[in-house]
Amino acid sequence: MTNKINIPRIMIAAPASGSGKTLFTCALLQYCISIEKQVHAFKCGPDYIDPMFHQKILGIPSRNLDAFLAGSDHIQQQFIRTAKTGDLAVLEGVMGLFDGMGGTTEEASCYQIATLTDTPIILVMRTKGMGGPTLLATIKGYLDHDPMKRIKGIILNQTSKSYYQMVKVYLEKETGVPVLGYMPEDELFQIESRHLGLQMPGEISNFKRKFQVIGEAVSKTVDMDQIVQIAKNTAPLVEDNNYTGVNISSGPRIGIARDEAFCFYYEDNIELLRQMGAELVYFSPLHDKKLPENLQGIILGGGYPEIYAKELQENAEMRRAIYSALADGLPSIAECGGFLYLQSMLWGTDGELYEMAGVLPGTGKKQEKLVRFGYVTIESNVDSFLEKGEKIRGHEFHYYDCEENGTDCLADKPVTGRSWNCIYAGENHWWGFPHLYFPSNPQFVKRFLSEGKKTGTLYGVGVGPGDPELITLKALHCIQNADLIILPALQKETCTAYKIVEQIYPDIRKKNCICLDFPMIRDEEKLHRAHDENYHTIKQLLEKYEKIAFLVLGDPSIYATYSYMRQRLQKDGSRSKTISGVPSFCAAASALGVSLVDQKEQLHILPGDCEVGANIQGTRVYMKSGKELEIIKEKLRRESQKKKLNIYGVSNCGMPEEKLVNSLKDIDPKSSYFTLLIVKEYAD
User: Fold this and answer.
1) Three-state secondary structure call for residue 160
2) Is beta strand 391-396 parallel, antiparallel or unpaired with respect to 419-422?
3) The one catalytic residue among 44, 336, 402, 422
4) By C-alpha distance, which of 404, 438, 436, 435 is closest to 420?
């Protein structure tokens, strides 16, 4: 369903950056407030700072319109959705009027945005050092390159009153385009800049009063009423009422870093988070001593941490809080400045080196020029908030760089095709330099929020077989801190994994443990029913407990029962992790006094029924039990007739009945439990 809607609108553009677009846009916004117009402001392109000026004046967010990030098909509806609620829409251009991606195309230029939104253009011309004929030639060049005749007026900047009066009639006669006024060269109209653009609004003293004065001054030298009239003389736009965002009923509580050091956020990103149900809570890494309560996710946006590096270091409580939260697996996104904050160290703009959060081991350091500047399409190499092979669009704009920027994604420039590795990504984090535009792939946000919504994590913890005293500290720590321990058995007394842990950690007897039966049967229907019941039980437990340890005998990543549960939980958005426990073959080798790898020899861990075992060079470790043990032994007997082998074994590995052997014949054919065979070939 569609309907036509009238939206008065105007774009302020220029031949290049530094021409005075932002200053005049702010003056126009201030004038509209003075005549009680409800105004919405927009910024063409990916810039963060200019929208802050708009918001500071209007008191409501300004939005970016970017044909690359959002896609040209969505720009008009994105614009209509916001602009229709006001009396006037003011769009500020980016760079030069026709400058798009790669410096050689008009794609993603502000002229393309004007075309997509059918918006008239006012051209701001910086005239300092330029005579009338040269100014005319420049303007004519723009008019010749404007086939749709969108340029409806011209403003002269850094111009004296006398020069303006002299060239106004001349330019209008030669071009047919009205010259609507001028801005004089005056200290009042100066805004300081730094390495990423203009000084931020919060750093300008008496900001509101300053721009009230600017607005009043410009309204005396520019025909603002005529600009408003041009904005009104625009054709209706067609609104598509079927154009909607992505919604979910409720979402997690997300903390967003927002202060002087972290302030670069696209309003469309914030809106999408809210649309998907997130409760957004702002905090300051500069000023707050702790994170907000009950966070289920955290976003560290871009900004200027290098300017405030000393203050960020001094706020050690917040640095420790963020380190601990991310180390505990709190879902997180860090972009550009936020990524620098996660490093171990950061060089400040004062030339001193400061400590940061220490989540990553690198150091942020300023480079001589912009690093990897421009639009990027980012493709994930791993399953994270993006599935492997999925893409999202973004933009890089930074002078700082780190030794390592991650390798979990590939960034690709849309025009040149240049690509590079970037991003540290995993199931609960996304950290890197690119600024992302969330609406270009809403699934990214959905998965991030799904990570935050989860009430518990299932940890598959490997605990053997092998020497219990060789259990990894990570596995032991997980068991000690678990709120609940699941034992895949009918009862504790028959759970081998439980008995192994009990030898090294007797306090497991005091832990909250439950048994779930995972029957070893061939009847697929009964097996599926049993697994399905256990899956639903675990889902309910995850609603109640934050950390659940699922004890696994051996390697959790290949243990069928846990792998099955993990896959189902991941599909429905539940969180699960694999924790390495006892490397059983190392434990066996240690007990046997056998060196697993000599010099540059390769180590191969194989299933017992591996057909290529005899053709593999190096040390082989077979892990098998039950009926197939005799099959392995027979294979090795035949192989030992052709070559010299040393064969070591451990039967009933990790059990009280454990037996170490130095030959095949000593391995008990009735061994009831796990058997390890270490095979080494030697020369005559």
Assistant:
1) coil
2) unpaired
3) 336
4) 404
Question: How many CB atoms sit inside 10 A of residue 643's CB?
Answer: 11
For 522, left (φ over 0), alpha (ψ -120 to 50), or beta? alpha
Q: Which tens digit of pLDDT belongs to each residue from 174-208? A: 999 999 999 988 777 676 665 555 677 767 778 88
**Are the C-beta atoms of residues 587 and 466 closer than 8 Å to each other?**
yes
Radius of gyration of the chain (CA): 33
pLDDT digits (tens, 9 = 90+) for 145-162: 998 999 999 999 989 999
- What is Dmax (Cα atoms) for the chain? 109
CA distance 376 to 21: 26
223-254 per-position pLDDT tens digit: 999 999 999 999 999 988 764 544 544 578 99
pTM above 0.90, yes or no: no
For 476, residues 6+ apart whose C-beta sits below 8 A from its C-beta are: 504, 505
110 catalytic? Reply is no
Contacts of 458 (CB under 8 A, 6+ apart): 538, 542, 548, 550, 565, 566, 569, 574, 575, 576, 577
Q: What angle do CA 23, 28, 31 make, to 5 degrees?
A: 125
Tokens representing residue 288 in the block: 């707050």
